[in-house]
Structures are given as structure tokens and as C-alpha cells.
């Protein structure tokens, strides 16, 4: 008669083990009272292994932001002229939401921890600024040559980040129980309706390049409308 034993459980990847150990200690002892030595001792690795993955203790609190920022940058770089720019940056912001929604428990824990530690709030603001800068750089390229193109790009990027973060914080305050996608879609809808342009439905047989759609504020002076139209025609 043969016997069999259960295979030992696979150890989590070292990076994940360090994150798990860090948050266990942060919750038990507090962030300020936990050292890198404490984290590596609990994870069962050396200090060199920690710094191979995380430049500082702050970085272990936000382990996926570098990957997400790289994904967002690649997403925007793959954009074409067929992509409406405001909708495109809104879709890029949804990549950040997806990162948070992948692990709601961890995201809620981080949110609570960040609220308590001023240094982490400052770190988080620097991360948010990098997302905003990536969105703004893409929009500046799309609005190049237009009147107030840089201003428009920066304002829209800031609006996208503000709308996304408002919805994200609302979801985190619900302990991750509300519908995150619905909340972010609702918030970003304000940005798209304010700054974006509606899709153009062409008559049968008409080519896209035959149509120019110009969106202007009600009451804008005629010279401003003509200037914007000339800018668009000049680009063509």
C-alpha cells in the first residue's frame, strides 16, 4: 500500500512576502515603530533582499505604483489620432483604479495607514503628481499648436486626477464594498462632458476627414471661434 503526503505549500514570492510582513507589523506596532530590520526578520530574508525590491520603507506601502505608472505611460504612448484625447486620459486613469481593485483588502489597509502617517500622505501626493504629469504630457502633445493648448492639457489632467481620486476615496471609505467602477465612471463622466467632444455620427458614405467639429463656449466672441477654427484647419 502506497502512502502519499500533501505537497508543501508554495512560498509566496519574496516581494509579496515583504509587503505582507510589512503590513502585518504596521498594523500591529504602527508604521513609525516598525523598522526595515523588523520587516526582513518577519519575512525571513536579509536587508539586501528588501532593498533589492524597495528603495525605502515608504515604497513598500505603495508596491505597485511604479508598474501602474509604466502601464499608463505605455497605454498613452500607444494612442493614435483616432483616440479622442479626453476619453483616452480618462481610460488611462482607470488603470489606476484597476490596480486598487485587484486587492481591496490591501488597498483599504493602505488608505487607513496613509491617513495616520503624515510622511506617507506626502509620499502619496508625490505619486499622484507623477500620474498627473503623465496625463498632461500626453495631452500637451495632442493639443500642440492650439490656443492655450498647454493650459488646456494641464487643467484637464488635473481634473481627471481629481475626479478619479474623489471616487477612489469614496470607495475606500466604504471598505471596498461599493462599486468602484461605477463611482469612477460617474466622476470621470463630468470630465468628459466638460472637456471632451461627443462622438461624430457621419452620414453614409462620408469620410471622417470631410467633417470638422468645433466645440466652443456659449457667448464666446466670434474672433475666438474663428481663431480656433483656423488653428484646426492649419493643422490639417
General description of the model:
This protein is mainly α and 236 residues long. The chain folds into three domains: 45 residues, Arc Repressor Mutant, subunit A, CATH 1.10.10; 138 residues, Tetracycline Repressor, domain 2; 35 residues, no CATH class. The protein contains eleven helices and no strands. Helix 5 packs antiparallel against helix 6, helix 6 runs antiparallel to helix 8 and helix 6 packs antiparallel against helix 10. The radius of gyration is 23 Å and the shape is elongated. The relative contact order is 0.09. The N terminus is likely disordered.
Annotate the secondary structure layout:
Elements: H1 14-29, H2 36-43, H3 47-53, H4 57-61, H5 65-77, H6 85-101, H7 104-116, H8 118-142, H9 149-173, H10 180-195, H11 222-235
Question: In terms of structural class, how would the helical and strand content be classed?
Answer: mainly alpha
Separation of termini?
81 Å
Q: Structurally, how many domains make up the residues?
A: 3
Number of helices: 11
CATH architecture descriptor text of the largest domain:
Orthogonal Bundle
Order of helix and strand elements from N to C terminus: HHHHHHHHHHH
Shape, please?
A: elongated
Amino acid at each position: 500500500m502506497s502512502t502519499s503526503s500533501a505537497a508543501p505549500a508554495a512560498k509566496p514570492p519574496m516581494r509579496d512576502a515583504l509587503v505582507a510582513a510589512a503590513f502585518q507589523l504596521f498594523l500591529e506596532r504602527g508604521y513609525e515603530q516598525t523598522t526595515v530590520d523588523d520587516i526582513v526578520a518577519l519575512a525571513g530574508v536579509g536587508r539586501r533582499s528588501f532593498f533589492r525590491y524597495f528603495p525605502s520603507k515608504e515604497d513598500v506601502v505603495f508596491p505597485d505604483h511604479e508598474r501602474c505608472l509604466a502601464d499608463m505611460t505605455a497605454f498613452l504612448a500607444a494612442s493614435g489620432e483616432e483616440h479622442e484625447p479626453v476619453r483616452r486620459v480618462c481610460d488611462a486613469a482607470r488603470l489606476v483604479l484597476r490596480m486598487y481593485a485587484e486587492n481591496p483588502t490591501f488597498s483599504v489597509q493602505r488608505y487607513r495607514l496613509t491617513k495616520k502617517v503624515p510622511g506617507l500622505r506626502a509620499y502619496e501626493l508625490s505619486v499622484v503628481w507623477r500620474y498627473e504629469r503623465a496625463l498632461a504630457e500626453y495631452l500637451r502633445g495632442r493639443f500642440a499648436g492650439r490656443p492655450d493648448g498647454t493650459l488646456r492639457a494641464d487643467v484637464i489632467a488635473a481634473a481627471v486626477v481629481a475626479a478619479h481620486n474623489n471616487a477612489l476615496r469614496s470607495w475606500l471609505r466604504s471598505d471596498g464594498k461599493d462599486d468602484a467602477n461605477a463611482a469612477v465612471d460617474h466622476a470621470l463622466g463630468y470630465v468628459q462632458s466638460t472637456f471632451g467632444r461627443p462622438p461624430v455620427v457621419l452620414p453614409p458614405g462620408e469620410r471622417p476627414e470631410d467633417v470638422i467639429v468645433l466645440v466652443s463656449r456659449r457667448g464666446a466672441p466670434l474672433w475666438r471661434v474663428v481663431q480656433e477654427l483656423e488653428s484646426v484647419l492649419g493643422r490639417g
